[in-house]
Amino acid sequence: MQFVAFERKLQGTGASRRLRNTGKVPGIVFGAGEPAMIELDHNALFFALKKEAFHSSILDMELNGATQKVLLRDFQMHPWKAQVLHVDFQRVDNTTKLRKKVPLHFSGEENSVAVKTDKCIVNHNATEVEIECLAVELPEFIAVDLSGLVKGKSLHASELVLPAAAKLVKHGTKDPVIVSVAEAKEEEVIVVAAAPAADDKKGKKGKK
Fold first, then answer.
1. DSSP result, 21-45
2. pLDDT tens digits for range 112-140
3. β-strand pairing of 84-91 with 66-77
4. Which of 8, 41, 103, 113 has its CA 20 to 30 A from that of 29?
5. What span, in angstroms and rounded, lies between the C-alpha atoms of 57 and 53?
6. Per the database record, which ranges form the Large ribosomal subunit protein bL25 beta domain (predicted)?
């Protein structure tokens, strides 16, 4: 993905506030050299942030007529308004090694024995994993084929198919569960006795 940034000459809280009032977003680019203060069009950035690829892939940033490879590192949103307050990017090159969370794209679940035959419920315990790799080899997503799921068996992080040079970053749990399979619970049917009709109540009162 490609986006355009502009050099930001004025800094400070007041300057950033005035910048936001004109429909711009202050930002910074760090790594591989001096940090660069930038500004971006708010609406273009706001809609770019809605795209998964903008968060998980290498981006081409055009600045002062030159294109740089960058990675989105952080952004801040207004507490209650749909407004981006600040954005951070990191420059990357062929030697940059990084750790980044990558989304998981699931497929084939409906064709698995667990779902098709045994009518099990499939739970996605995780929708992303953190990997370590060279920036140029960062995948936009990791495909997860669930067509082989069977009842009583879970899919663990160690079973994911990662890019050749990528390594899974584990935190605490040695081999976390990514997808679990559970048997569907039978619905319990509760029979409620009907209340006496209004006419029946009146009839009973008349007999007394």
1. HTTEEEEEEESSSS-EEEEEEHHHH
2. 999 999 898 999 999 999 999 998 889 99
3. antiparallel
4. 103
5. 5
6. 98-184
